[in-house]
Amino acid sequence: MQTFFLPTFRRLLDAIWESSQRAEVLVLHSGLMPAQRVAEIHHIPVFIACPYPVLSATRHFANPFLPQLNFVPFFNRLSYTLNRLYPLGQYRVVADWYRTALRVSPPTRYHNYLKQNGRQLPVLYCYSEMLIPSPPDWDRSICVSGYWSLPADTTWLPPQALLDYLQSGPPPVFIGFSSTIGPSPEKMTELVAKAIREIPHRVIVGGGWGGLHNVNLPDSAFFVENVPHQWLFPYLSVVVHHGGTGTLAAAIKAGRPSVICPLGAEQAFWAAAAHRKGVAPPFRMQHKLTAEWLVNSVKTTLSTPSMARAAEELGHKLREEDSFGKAVEFIERNVEAWTRNAPAI
Question: CA 276, 257, 290: angle at the middle one, nearest 5?
Fold first, then answer.
């Protein structure tokens, strides 16, 4: 927190202030909501963008950052008050930035950053309603546009060894935990290596931020440090991952079923949603993960044709979704409402 996160958070706030000097509209990631004060200073409209439905209270499901339990509607809605605690760990940085960079008075510790001059800020959720339908108690200030995915990087070329491995047999299983780093990457690598020896299929292991290492892996496995998911996943049979928003979207868009092992944050929320849609078996948190469970889940997924069909059908729908068009239309409509000082629509 002290050596990496907070200094990085301050640099991001400074970058927003510097790059917004001639901006007409400000779109902020939900983790940077205190920067909405920049929009007030510049007298421009501001939108909050978020990859998971955590900002908007509803009776129909609990805060995605909580364990996936069946709360009654009252407690579902109440669970979103936890969001007010998130900025507290950043408050000193925010207060100093307001004073030194923006030269305005800092907000109170429990300031509601989703409101500006009494007006509810419009929220853009960049996931698909095909996975999580919008609850009926949300108003028109909220838009679920669909997943935002960049075009493929045409300058990236896969290593020849990876191409050779993919072409030398049936579609392999992929195991990788992307940006998630558990408390013991070494033990997780040992667990994955043990599971690979019991899985009767070829396996690609992804390193990256997930902390899996190219150590003691069976000869049948292929290790890659980093590879674009949207390029790799169509070549696979099953994707084993942590349940992050982007990784799950890439797996489904590729038409491939998932085995999901969440570590924390909102990952269990997405894992539960994927299971309900029939594109993944029941999930298990990483702190309870065993090699036996991983092997059985992969075998179950590979031997369940309905799961592969559900992933392919849902993937086709997601690929056809006009996510950016819907987001742009929402932004333009609300910019026009902002000029009339009307509520978000």
Answer: 85
In a domain, 102, yes or no: yes
Token pair in block for residue 319: 């690929």
Residue 174 lies in a domain: yes
Per-residue pLDDT of the chain (345 residues; tens, 9 = 90+): 888 889 999 999 999 999 999 999 999 999 999 999 999 999 999 999 999 999 999 999 999 999 887 789 999 999 999 888 877 889 999 999 999 999 999 999 989 899 888 888 999 999 999 999 999 999 999 999 999 988 888 899 999 999 999 999 999 999 998 766 667 778 888 999 999 999 989 999 998 765 677 777 888 899 998 899 999 999 999 999 999 999 999 999 999 999 999 998 899 999 999 999 999 999 999 999 999 999 999 999 999 999 999 999 999 999 999 999 999 999 999 999 998 887 887
Q: What is the CATH number of the domain that holds 233?
A: 3.40.50.2000
Q: Which domain holds residue 181?
A: 160-320
Say yes or no: 197 and 132 in one domain: no
- How far from 132 is each of 57, 61, 169, CA to CA, in Å? 14, 10, 36
Structurally, the chain folds into a number of domains equal to 2
Q: Please indicate, yes or no, if residue 153 is contained in any of the structural domains.
A: no
Alpha-carbon distances, residue 36 vs 43, 107, 268, 295, 335 (angstroms): 11, 11, 29, 47, 15
Give the span between the Cα atoms of 297 and 319, in whole angstroms.
27
166/312 same-domain check: yes
CA 112, 116, 118, 123 torsion-angle sign: negative
Rg (C-alpha) for the chain, rounded Å, is 22
50 and 141 belong to one structural domain: yes
Q: For residues 331 and 271, state if they share a domain.
A: no
Do 314 and 328 sit in the same domain of this protein? no
The Cα 108–Cα 88 span in angstroms is 10
Which residue has 């009252």 as its token pair? Answer: 74
Q: What are the backbone angles phi and psi of residue 249, rounded to the nearest 5°? A: -60, -40
